[in-house]
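Notes on consecutive records. When two proteins share a document, each keeps its own sequence and its own token line. Never mix them. Below: protein one.
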Amino acid sequence: MGRLAAIVSAALVACSVASAQATRTISLSPGGYVYLAGSNVRCGAVHSNGITFVSCGVVLANGDAKRGSYVAAMQSNGRVAIIHAIKPGKTTTVFDRTPAAVVEAAAKTLARPGDHIRIPGTSIACSAGLVSGKATIFCDYVTAGGGARPHSYAFGMSNTLLTSLGWDATSHVHLLGSWPENG
């Protein structure tokens, strides 16, 4: 676990460096999607039962969730849930709680390494980057200044790996769990 935590920490540093060179900020309104260029990762914003959240998962070319993969979600209050999509109609929550369903939007927006993704009206900030050459998206619960909130959760997702992360009071990130996206 120590080696993986070091890799994740290095990846976060790499993503924050890439963030400094961001080419644009994408506004992702509820009902909208963003696809991570160079991957099969799709993130969508949803507003349901008074809660806004972003969820990310590996999808097939037709937009359906990849069987056996994981989905990560972050609520507007910073809560993160990771769900294992075992097969159609059967899921298991492996971290925190299950998010609501997401509806497909007509337009396909691509996020590229260096891009930031904001969900208006929330404290959720996501960024796209490259980790070991793989397109990866990270979502954090942030302060008004844009930094990760102390004692908050985050997640990172690529075609091959999903990680849940926790920020401590001293702004250090810790790996809480990781799951292979090899469904």
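Protein two starts on the next line and is unrelated to protein one.
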Amino acid sequence: MTQPLDLRYPEPMRELWASLYSDVVWLHGRWIIYRQLFGTNEARVQLLNETAGTVTWMFQQLLLNDIQISLSKLGDPARSGKRTNLTLRTFHTKLEESGELELAARMKPLVEAFDASCKKIRHRRNKWIAHSDLATKLSSRATPLSGPSREEIEVALLALRQVMNSVELHYTESQVAYEHFMMSQDGEHLISAFAVAKCYRELVKEGVIPRDHLRKRFPRGV
């Protein structure tokens, strides 16, 4: 979803805000899908394991790593050497440069609270996910790094929403329910597809559907 430039925001930060907004919306979208697939109930996890265990395990790890990387990037410094980063701190700096000092002052402690909520997440990003720290890699063979709990991610996302909505309230007098982002196709659709696949497999075993039906309909690539 691309956020159109909102004229209610001052010109110097319109494009920056639209990009941040899009990143935060889709970050919540990925977390919603993760919860739908892996954080709803054991029956769903069992279904995924039965139908495509290896692939869905890989997808689970990739999705969780991506969510942690995205949270970390949003809290990164405004600059890395000569490069400017698209982060909350960059937006905060732009507010100060544009004379929006009241909002900048209100936003600063919220950004710091978000940063604090991501401390463990950023550690994993720096030592394990985005980089291969030698000492961490070797020690993890004996004591693997613990992954984030659902609560840890939820706390970080709540802190992130508080930052974003402080800006929304200032310029639009409204808030965005990022946590209720709705997609045309999400994890629920995938669960339904896997449920149908399981039923199909059972019908093949019962002889209702020919065993070569799937191979004929969708031949494997060479």
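For the record: Residues 11-183 form one domain.
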